[in-house]
Design a protein that fits this description.
Layout lengths: L1 E4 L3 H8 L2 H7 L19 E6 L4 E9 L4 E8 L6 H17 L4 E7 L3 H9 L3 E12 L2 E11 L4
Parallel strand pairs: 4-5
Antiparallel strand pairs: 1-2, 2-3, 3-4, 5-7, 6-7
């Protein structure tokens, strides 16, 4: 498995708008997949996970400030399970080694219980809850805030 930084926004778009991903990660106010755009930010890191035979997915890391980064995870169904766990662990190691990140966090709607479970298994802890902050199919959901700190040496 390889994890590397990419600027292939077309590939990132194809992954993020895959029906199994976009359906879970979009809300009532998201554009249709064909109109959604990848944020082409020079200060962000898009880490792509692949094997010799397949594209597994990517994680987008956006800086909140010099030491705190927000993560958005997009893995394709072919990667679910051990491949995703391994790839994301490598992505976190990359972020700890190549940036000044001290904290990485994300927000997940409460209906996405598999993503919350995945984050916890990856070492993220619940650090808050943003009430009624996500609308999907006309219903309001809380967002669970999860974070992980740089491992101490």
């Amino acid at each position: 498995m390889t994890v590397e930084k990419t600027l292939d926004y077309g590939l990132l778009w194809r992954i993020a708008t895959h029906p199994s991903i976009y359906r879970l990660t979009s809300d009532d106010f998201s554009p249709l997949p064909g109109r959604w755009k990848v944020a082409e930010r020079v200060d962000s890191h898009y880490l792509l996970a692949t094997t010799a035979n397949e594209i597994l997915g990517f994680c987008a890391f956006y800086p909140e400030n010099g030491v705190c980064w927000q993560a958005h995870i997009c893995f394709l169904p072919c990667a679910y399970g051990e491949k995703t766990r391994s790839a994301f662990a490598q992505m976190l190691k990359w972020m700890w080694a190549k940036t000044r990140a001290r904290r990485i966090w994300g927000a997940i709607p409460t209906y996405n219980t598999l993503a919350i479970k995945f984050a916890k298994e990856a070492g993220f802890g619940v650090c808050g809850r943003n009430f009624d902050s996500w609308q999907k199919d006309g219903k309001l959901y809380d967002m669970i805030l999860l974070g992980i700190s740089r491992p101490t040496q």
